[in-house]
Amino acid sequence: MKIHRQGILPITLFSALLLLIAAAISAVFSLEDWIILFIWVSTGTLILLFSMFFRMPNRKMYRDPNAIVSAADGKIVAIENVYEKEFLKENCIVISVFMSIYNIHVNIIPMQGKIEYTKHHPGKNYPAINPKSSELNEMYSTVIHAEKCSILIRQIAGIAARRIYVSVKKGNEVMQGDELGIIKLGSRVDLFLPETAKINVSLGDKVKAGQSVLAWLR
What we know:
Layout: H1 8-28, H2 33-52, E1 67-69, E2 74-84, E3 90-99, E4 106-108, E5 113-121, H3 133-136, E6 139-145, E7 150-157, E8 164-166, E9 173-174, E10 179-183, E11 187-194, E12 198-199, E13 206-207, E14 213-216
Antiparallel strand pairs: 1-14, 2-3, 2-13, 3-11, 4-10, 5-6, 5-9, 6-7, 7-11, 8-10, 12-14
Helix pairs in contact: 1-2
């Protein structure tokens, strides 16, 4: 299991804390052997589970200039017609992907192009599945411009995920399937597409970052 570089420090600190607690309990209290074994096995399990939040996807990315692939692993929780007022300033179709604690949290570039705009927005921490999160939570907006259109990707922090890391900057040329960044712990990604896009998913569908085609450009 390959770990994202943004996970090294939190995993190290979390592991050190749990190991210190387990060692202190084992040393201070007179416990039966099976209880001590249970403590250490539980400690190792918790460290492994925490590490999985930062695992990197090991998969072949789908590439097609007419396709918009999912930026995140998760479940489609919204497909709506909206007016995007931050940058695109036009009517769009927004597709929202909710990432549970079990999903990979590394996000992927959904379309080849050039990074036209990036902005971090501080905010609240509503549960990411709550529609209010798209407007009020901490978020990071990234716009990719290509020959056919521009799209906006909005990474949204959730009730536990309060750190968004983005690995691209304005002016970068990016390829479909490249890394966009990571949202630590559970979260949500909204993708704003042109109204003319042909949607390829339905509510409730489970999608994979870099592989599932959300829409076709036309």
